[in-house]
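wait is this the right file?? whatever heres the structure
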């Protein structure tokens, strides 16, 4: 794992967007997995802008959404599906056949899990995954205590995740479970980037980078990724200096 600290959120986001652009330039049929949320939002916006301005064809990539809230409709503003559709999929005109998002309303969540794992295996694994980090150290919905040996799975949400997740919704929303790629997918990805910004993430980033690797703080697993990068702005990295 390597640590990279950028001046501010804009510089951090531009660097992450460049990783996406470079990937697609070098491998037009790449498998790309992104997280939704506040941290990667500007990264998506900047990557789309560059793709359009530089006329980079994304239509042959395989796009995978990292996770989804169980029980939340895809057209809900707070859903991961809505985030990707609004900021990445439609602006880039990605064909439906190339987009793979978890269906949080599925009547058979285990089939959703199985289908995603089979797809990733068929494609030869993930080329680049860009994730964030929760205040409890989660990646995706891999909550504290999760097994490092899981691929995609359904999980009961930690109370910190439930509370923090309310900011994505216009009104109070019941959040109990998530469906997510597992940390096994993260570790098998050819390149993994964990992003964080703002001073509120400083302590959890310090722990993720400095503490002993433990599933009690899932993000510590990034320390063991052979091509993993923790990319933060100066505020999030303030306790590492």
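ok assuming it is, sequence goes like this
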């Amino acid at each position: 794992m390597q640590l990279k600290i950028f001046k501010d959120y804009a510089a951090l986001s531009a660097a992450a967007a460049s990783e996406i652009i470079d990937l697609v330039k070098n491998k037009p049929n790449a498998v790309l997995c992104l997280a939704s949320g506040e941290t990667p939002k500007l990264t998506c916006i900047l990557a789309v802008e560059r793709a359009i301005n530089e006329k980079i064809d994304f239509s042959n990539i395989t796009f995978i959404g990292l996770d989804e809230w169980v029980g939340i409709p895809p057209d809900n503003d707070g859903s991961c599906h809505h985030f990707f559709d609004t900021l990445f999929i439609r602006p880039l005109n990605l064909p439906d056949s190339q987009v793979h998002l978890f269906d949080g309303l599925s009547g058979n969540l285990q089939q959703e899990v199985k289908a995603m794992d089979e797809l990733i295996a068929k494609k030869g694994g993930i080329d680049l995954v860009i994730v964030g980090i929760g205040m409890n150290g989660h990646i995706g919905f891999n909550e504290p205590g999760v097994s490092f040996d899981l691929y995609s799975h359904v999980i009961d949400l930690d109370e910190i995740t439930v509370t923090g997740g309310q900011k994505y919704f216009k009104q109070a929303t019941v959040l109990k479970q998530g469906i997510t790629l597992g940390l096994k997918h993260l570790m098998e990805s050819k390149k993994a980037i964990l992003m964080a910004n703002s001073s509120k993430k400083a302590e959890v980033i310090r722990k993720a980078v400095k503490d002993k690797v433990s599933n009690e703080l899932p993000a510590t697993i990034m320390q063991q990724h052979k091509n993993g990068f923790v990319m933060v702005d100066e505020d999030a990295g303030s306790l590492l200096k």
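The first strand starts at residue 2 and ends at 6. so i think its the right one actually
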